[in-house]
Specification:
The chain is an alpha+beta fold. It contains eight helices and six strands, in the order βαβααααααββαββ.
């Protein structure tokens, strides 16, 4: 089964959801988890003034209460030049998906830690490259791909794909079965509840496959 995970490196509820996704990957190794940077606030010019800081802290406290994920409320990333633009970090995730397939969730988790725990400005290319180096990605190769038109185009495609499927917020997990979109969870969810939904979906998929196989009888198969 393929599950699409719509997320954003600078979405606090996605950070809170990361342990759940980690458990999903560990408990269902055969599930094809496709991570999509859906675009929480791409190209935003939002500054972190006192009002917006209060807005962020309110959500961060709620995420911490629900998930236990740690936040450094000092927000050391705030500066005169910082804008809450999630396009650069989303593009960086796309670059890592191209350069090191299979490491995208690990990179996403490192970006979240860099931002929410270490207070680094992950809207900056050099910071994004530093984090990629932790995975063994060549710095020069990362920066070259990061600045490419191809990476920018693929990032925009992820934003558009999110809108096309009607994703209304992050995190969102969904499947697509014969063109029909089925949302598994919209927003934060703990693993025990998500597991029930995933198990139900897997059971339905198995039943569908078994029913399809019953079209064979008396040595004849109607495909």
């Amino acid at each position: 089964m393929k599950i699409y995970y719509f997320t954003d490196p600078m979405c606090s509820w996605c950070y809170g959801f990361s342990p759940t996704v980690q458990q999903l990957k560990e408990n269902y190794p055969n599930i094809d988890l496709q991570i999509i940077s859906g675009g929480f606030s791409p190209f935003s010019k939002q500054v972190v003034n006192d009002e917006y800081r209060e807005f962020l802290e309110f959500h961060w406290r709620n995420v911490n209460k629900m998930s236990g994920q740690y936040f450094d409320h000092a927000m050391k990333f705030v500066s005169d030049t910082f804008r809450y633009d999630t396009e650069p970090s989303s593009r960086a995730l796309v670059v890592v998906q191209n350069l090191m397939p299979g490491k995208d969730f690990e990179y996403l988790s490192l970006l979240q830690k860099a931002f929410y725990v270490n207070g680094l400005d992950i809207t900056k290319a050099d910071v994004l490259a530093d984090v990629a180096e932790e995975l063994g990605v060549d710095r020069n190769s990362f920066l070259e791909h990061f600045d490419s038109d191809d990476a920018k185009r693929k990032t925009i495609h992820g934003f558009e794909f999110s809108r096309q499927l009607g994703v209304q917020g992050f995190p969102t997990l969904l499947t697509i079965d014969n063109g029909a979109v089925k949302v598994l969870t919209r927003g934060f969810q703990k693993f025990d509840l998500l597991k029930m939904v995933v198990d139900e979906q897997l059971a339905q998929q198995t039943a569908t496959e078994l029913n399809a196989g019953q079209s064979c009888a008396d040595g004849f198969c109607a495909y």
